[in-house]
Amino acid sequence: MRARILGTGSYLPEGYLTNDDLAQWLDTSDTWIRERTGIRERHITKTGTVEMAVKAAEAALANAGVTSEEIDLILVGTMTPDYFCPSVSCQVQAELGMEHAVCMDIGAACSGFLFALATAQAYLTSGMARTALVIGSETLSKVVDWSDRGTCVLFGDGAGAAVVGIDEKGVLAIDMGSKGSKGMALPCPGIPLQNPLQDASEEGSQKSYIQMDGQEIFKFAIRTVPETVRRSLQAAGVCVGDVSHFFFHQANRRILETVAKNLRIPLEKVPMNIERTGNTAAASIPLLLDEWNRKGSLVRGEKLVLSGFGAGLSWGSIVMEW
User: What is the residue extent of each domain of the chain?
Assistant: First the structure.
């Protein structure tokens, strides 16, 4: 038996910022941003990670025809929780009345949804759970420096979700990995150390903003994503040509085009929504998956690849039958 996605849901905040909006206070332009990233606008929340997660979850439950009472595992991929504790997953449980579910947040940044889906696969196939709710939800607008055009133009807010159950078809192979030695190419500092044993002159003052070595991340992505996709396809016994759609993490259009070229995938097999969403980290892949699902572009039984990369550094690919 395998873990299989039964339904999907997503949520994008009504508020958004266009490139022209950003140009009002940044030394940038719509042309400059589009040429380098493929991004035109990004959604910005006025609430937070939990509310977006709940709305995406409700949509996924309705799409799957599954009730809250049937969920016994909640996994949330996020790097931007509203609270350190309780976790986003526990707050989703409380909001939706999923009293019997085990709850866990997974902090793998942009790979978070893939890591959560892989965890769901392990729980379900081992018999530890029967029906899982897997969510990626991010409020990246609170961890970017809005005066830094190198980072703030890239990111947006949103949430995507999937209900996952046991079936004869579903996940065929998983490839995951991490390289902590390169992690500081994409850091986001936490609360600085402040305690009675620390010298007052040494108290940290660093802001909790995303920082990024863009060139290093670009090189990492265009090398690592093709490698992980090839490994997962080989493990599944599936050829590139047998895959109907490749759902890649929406980080940068140039990265997506380069990866597709490396793998010899026609661009029509590589769905994109980065122009309208920006990089939404763990929410990226489930947002895109739900968009394609709801417009009827996915056919039951066809083969899909979900693949992403992000801070950590981390990466993952999942080959599945839809």
Answer: 2-168, 173-192+205-321
Q: Looking at the annotation, which residues are catalytic?
A: 110, 249, 279
The candidate with the shortest Cα–Cα distance to 156, out of 288, 289, 59, 63, is 288
Task: Please give the helix or strand (H or E) that residue 58 lies within, else none.
Answer: helix 49-64
Q: Which of 254, 248, 257 is nearest to 305 (CA)?
A: 248
Distance CA 235, CA 238 (A): 8
Beta bridge partners of 216: none
Q: Is the pLDDT of residue 36 over 60?
A: yes
State how far the Cα of 5 lies from the Cα of 169, in Å rounded to an integer.
10
- Are both 2-168 and 173-192+205-321 of the same fold? yes
Give the model confidence (pLDDT) of 205-221 as tens digits: 567 899 988 899 999 99
Kindly state which CATH superfamily the domain 173-192+205-321 is placed in. Thiolase/Chalcone synthase (3.40.47.10)
Q: Are 314 and 178 in contact (CB under 8 A)?
A: yes
- Helix, strand, coil distribution of the chain in percent, nearest 5: 40, 25, 35
Q: What is the dihedral of CA 62, 67, 73, 76, to 10 degrees?
A: 30
Number of other CB atoms surrounding residue 127 within 10 Å: 9
Mapping DSSP onto H, E and C, the string for 134-197 reads EEEEECHHHCCCCCCCCCCCCECCEEEEEEEEEECCCEEEEEEEECHHHHHHCCCCCCCCCCCC
Give the predicted TM-score (pTM) of the model: 0.94
Residues 6+ apart with CB under 8 A from 259: 221, 222, 225, 226, 229, 248, 265
Superfamily in which the 2-168 domain is placed by CATH: Thiolase/Chalcone synthase (3.40.47.10)
